[in-house]
Amino acid sequence: MDENEVSNQVIGAAIEVHRHLGPGLLESVYRDCLAHELRALGLAVEKELILPVRYKGLELEAGYRADLLVQRLVIVELKAVDALVPIFTAQLLSYLRMGGLKLGLLINFNSVQLKDGVRRVVNNL
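The structure assignment produced for this chain is given below.
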């Protein structure tokens, strides 16, 4: 399974969660429900994955946490906000770089239609 196949499954599972819960809840609720849906699909999911910061040969445990890592291929960063702003994309791109990964999904569950709250972010390694 490659990044695109994983991301398609994540988006489908996120739509299922949104269909049942709707907007307006805490990010942690969406994270836990999405992790459950993904595991039910047989995907490996890690929650709140700690990403160390590498700086000039140092590895710092800075406490950055990616919401979900799916199949060790795709980082999923979840939001429950009025609108996605550019800093969220920059944050996810930093996570991708720190993890040495290519693809991430930024998903805002406070969208009326979830498809309007999904952004793909690509790290051009």
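Interim note for the steering committee: Helices lie at 3-21, 27-40, 86-99. The chain has three helices and five strands.
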